Amino acid sequence: MLLFKVWPLGPPCMQQAKESHSMELMAIDSNFNDGSCTQTDLQDSPWWRVDLGSPHVVSKVSITNRGDCCSQRLNGAQIRIGNSLDNNGKDNSLCASITSIQPGATETFCCNGIEGRYVTVFILDRTDCHPL
C-alpha cells in the first residue's frame, strides 16, 4: 500500500488491469484493514501509479505490504519517479528496489529528492499479481 499524506482524499491513481474487487484508490486510503488494498490481475510486469498532479520533490515513499497472504509478490518490485508516462513510467528515475517487506509491515524508501509527477511501482520481468 502506498500512502500519500498530502491529499486528504488521495491523488488520482491508475493500475494495469485490476481484479474485479480491487480499486486503485484503495492503495492510498490510509486504511490497513482487510480488503482495503488493491491488486492487478495476473499479468506480465504489473504496475500501479499515482499522479501527483504536478512535479514534486519526493524524499521518501512508504509501502505497507499486505498481511493476509502472498507478501512475497512485492519482492523485486521497483519504485520509479519522474515526469514521463513513456513505457508506463518504467524509464523514470529509480527510487528503490524492494527486496522484501514482511507481511503487514511498512517500509520507507529514501528517494533522495527525485523530482517527478508520477510515482510508479513495477514488478518487472515476472508474471504475477501486483498487490498494494
Describe this structure in words.
The protein is mainly β and 132 residues long. 0% of the residues lie in helices and 39% in strands. It has strands at residues 13-15, 43-44, 47-64, 78-82, 93-97, 106-122, 127-128. The strands form two sheets. Strands 1-3-6-4-5 form a five-stranded antiparallel beta sheet, with no helix packed on it. Mean pLDDT is 75; it is low at 1-9 and 17-26.
Topology, please?
Layout: E1 13-15, E2 43-44, E3 47-64, E4 78-82, E5 93-97, E6 106-122, E7 127-128
Antiparallel strand pairs: 1-3, 2-7, 3-6, 4-5, 4-6
Q: Report Rg.
A: 13 Å
Name the helicity range. under 10%
Shape: globular
State the low-pLDDT regions, or none: 1-9, 17-26
Class from helix and strand fractions: mainly beta
Tally of DSSP β-strands: 7
Give the percentage of residues in beta strands: 35-45%
